[in-house]
Design a protein that fits this description.
The protein is α+β, with helices and mostly antiparallel strands and 336 residues long. 37% of the residues lie in helices and 19% in strands. The chain folds into two domains: 217 residues, no CATH class; 40 residues.
Length: 336
């Protein structure tokens, strides 16, 4: 048995070390590239959104159109929603205005806004649909604290000097009923300002789509005997932004990890999330297996085509065909 040449084992060992080093460098490079991509994507989201965080996770079912089924394009528990900053009244289109224009977002007419209740930024923001822009009417008031004579206007629908309004056919997509009767009672807003000794202001009436299903009533109305969710009109100063995009189901992971899943999501949300994750994992794994085989097949196919191009009729190469046409002669000049 021949002995290994001097330095051969050392060379193999060095080769293993080099391969290990290359693997580590490659791994670190992949992590760096992934980090850069995350920073780029996050930076782009923040630049577009104008707020931090640019994405919010839905923790309740107040915007769901069904308690049992999740829909893409409808805000359900566990969805992640992209927020875009708004500062002007015209940037938000409420339900009654959007319905006339044929504009809808998340399964119903009008924009969905994210706002801090009474402007308190220490509380979790509320994400509900803007129903109407309401202006304070103080023409009959003797002074700013004459609460008994305050009324409200909705100029868009020529509604002036009232404290009560009804939408008889409030509609939602994928809802169990075609239309809902929604009552907008604004007297509690006056009572709130009288109690706080503050001056009423203009703002949005808001409502969760899911609240419309359970007990039609706005955030500013009585919520099943528990009082208003928000006792005042939503001022533009309280609004963080409006919802402009949705990543369904993935927020459930965050809610489970942080213990914030207090409201049960629709049953098919977990199914949809599982299927989506399996697909996302399967795609790169499949590509890792398919690509080498595809590359090998392509090379073999390319080589085969070259061989066919170099082969003449009858499966013989051109030079072989030429050889067949030659007639060998013997020494005596006769054909062999």
């Amino acid at each position: 048995m021949s002995e290994p040449k001097k330095g051969e084992g050392k060379g193999k060992e060095k080769s293993r070390k080099e391969r290990a080093k290359e693997d580590i460098v490659g791994f670190l490079k992949d992590i760096f590239i992934a980090f850069v991509l995350v920073v780029i994507v996050l930076g782009a989201l923040v630049a577009y959104s104008g707020v931090w965080p640019p994405v919010v996770v839905i923790e309740s079912g107040s915007m769901q159109h069904s308690k049992t089924e999740s829909f893409v394009g409808v805000i359900d528990t566990g969805d992640m929603v992209l927020v875009k900053k708004v500062t002007q009244r015209w940037e938000v289109t409420p339900y009654i205005e959007a319905r006339e224009r044929g504009y809808s977002q998340y399964g119903a007419s009008g924009d969905v806004v994210i706002y801090h209740k009474l402007g308190n930024r220490d509380e979790t923001p509320i994400i509900h649909r803007a129903v109407a822009w309401v202006e304070v009417n103080a023409t009959k008031c003797a002074n700013e604290h004459d609460y008994a004579n305050y009324t409200f206007d909705i100029p868009l629908i020529q509604w002036y000097g009232k404290t009560y309004f009804t939408i008889p056919d409030y509609t939602l997509q994928n809802a169990p009923r075609d239309a809902f009767l929604v009552n907008i009672t604004l007297t509690k807003i006056i009572n709130y300002h009288a109690q706080m000794n503050t001056v009423p202001h203009s703002g949005f009436v808001t409502m969760g789509d899911g609240n419309a299903l359970a007990q039609p009533g706005t955030d500013q109305s009585d919520q099943g005997g528990n009082g208003p969710l928000c006792p005042d009109l939503v001022s533009m100063d309280w609004i963080v932004g409006k919802a402009v995009g949705e990543l369904p189901w993935f927020g459930l992971i965050k809610l489970v990890v942080t213990g914030g899943l207090d409201y049960p999501p629709p049953s098919n949300s977990w199914t949809n999330l599982t299927i989506t994750i399996v697909i996302l994992i399967a795609i790169p794994i499949s590509l890792d297996y398919i690509y080498p085989y595809g590359k090998k097949w392509y090379k073999a196919r390319k080589a085969a085509k070259k061989g066919e191009a170099a082969t003449g009729k009858g499966g013989k190469r051109p030079e072989e065909e030429k050889g067949d046409d030659k007639v060998e002669e013997g020494e005596d000049g006769r054909e062999k």
